[in-house]
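Page 42, continued from yesterday. The earlier attempt failed because a stray header line got pasted into the input along with the sequence. Redoing it now with the clean sequence only.
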Amino acid sequence: MGKSVFIAEKPSVAQEFAKALHADFKRRDGFLESEQYIVTWCVGHLVTMSYPDKYDERLKRWSFDTLPFLPKEFKYEVIPAVEKQFQIVKGLLTREDVKTIYVCTDSGREGEYIYRLVERMAGVKDKEEKRVWIDSQTEEEILKGIETAKDLSEYDNLCEAAYLRAKEDYLMGINFSRVLTLKYGRNISNYLKMDRAVVSVGRVMTCVLGMVVIGKTANFDAEWRVCEQSKYYNTPYLYKDNGFVDKEKAQELVTFLSDPLPAQAVIEKIERKKETKNPPLLFNLAEIQNECAKQFKISPDETLNIIQELYEKKLVTYPRTDARVLSTAVCKEIHKNIGGLKNYQPAAEFAGEILEKQLHKNIAKTRYCDDKKITDHYAIIPTGQGLSNLNRLSQTAVRTYELIVRRFLSIFYPAAQYSRVSITSKCKAEAFYATFKVLTDEGYLKIVKNSFSKPSKEDEDGKCTREVLEALKKYKKGDMIDFNGFEIKEGETSPPKRYNSGSMILAMENAGQLIEDEELRAQIKGSGIGTSATRAEILKKLNTIKYISTNKKTQVITPTLLGEIIYDVVECSMKQLLNPELTASWEKGLTYVAEGSITSQEYMDKLEGFVGRRTQAVMGLNNQRQLIMMFDESAKNYK
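This time it went through. Structure tokens are written below.
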């Protein structure tokens, strides 16, 4: 009887598989072995794509003559720093006594790519290969994944998509970086007084740079608003319908309304309605990265490391997920996750209440369960296990875990209920608007208040609002009310509100649409920019090459002068790269390949055509003078 090899993506994951198998393992150099099993590991990527000079020595020198570079067949090589581990893995995968290979790399496109490259370079033949697909590292989940492992060939479409993603980044990066550097590098270095300038361009990275440079605009509210009866209606004195250009005109209105005080107004309209606020959808990686940026002012990369650690400590499910819902299968077993949380002090009371009242019983019939919205993995939720590991984690990691637990348990509670009263009144033909809102039934909100949140006046404010709301009950349309005074709220035109690292991750997920509203975000269909596994790394690279700067205290992202100049270059030469929707469409295409909707050859033909046309087009441009003018305009913001 042949042996089975289990190959994981990293040593720590391999160790969990070894524990779950309960065999008498002996530690070897780069693997563990028992009579029946061998457990080994990669250390991330062991194999990578070769640089152009491996195809032809002439390609080492950057030249227009060798562009566009579109190889018929792509070359791969072992990464020198991990050559030793590759040779160990290769020896194990091709051993004569090995019958079955269980692929246990991360359950996603990138994990698939890591193994398939190793398989290719190692020359694996005549072995039974099975794919282990798991959502957490608990022993139960690992054993279930092994038991239900499918034939590796069932993931061939995912493999094709993984190869294409790498080829796409490779071809765009090499061709576009080279042609833009050759065309404009000297202009940039002369302008910035640098020795030399390399224009680094990437399918996703350049689009994100554009989003940072452009930023987003902000809105503000005011109580007074112009109406058709107003003396200021259709006059040039207004900035918008809720404010004046000059303070003098605003003071003129105050003086007019204040003669005499108290000024009498009549209620023209009064609306009373009840509102509900549903528990938000569960966390995916982008959502938890955004939340941690707000709560802890940490980068998406730091958040990913924390969630990965929680995953490896068996505390939460798989981190690199885009889904915000549960699967039907998980919903059937969800009582296990909830039950485990009865031993987690900050949420024990709620977990107990959910089970006692069976609030979880119909969760599969709600919006929080939807198999159609899950590709590789369901949302990030607590496993209910591994709680003993919490005391070995950093404070931020412990607090992040609490965020995930509270978000998870909140979906089993009813919506919060509010009462809202809106009043429109007129004073001397000028309209005033007031809205009062009070929480009448907290529903799920009682569970989302974190133990580490700063004390607030929320309860006190709520009590005050309730009193006002009670007083407002006696008012009706046509009633007279008194205004005791008027004051001017001064403001100035706000500069674009910059992304922070968390809101940028959400914007990337939603193809450039920075939508804060929870319900609206859920309606956005299609793919975003990059993937949950790569977005934080993209921001990190833009910081490293000094195209953007991230404030460590606030996590606010701003472009550098170099970043704005690179943006100017791309906008003048291949503007398509700055379009988030186009970038997202490439990602959607990869999804179609993974689903089997289109072939990899169809995708590759489109890719090569795009890269070839855009590279040739830049060679024919003669717009350096126009660019210098754009550089001057950008530089004004940095003096």
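Notes: Residues 457 and 463 are 10 Å apart (CA to CA).
Reminder to self: strip header lines before submitting.
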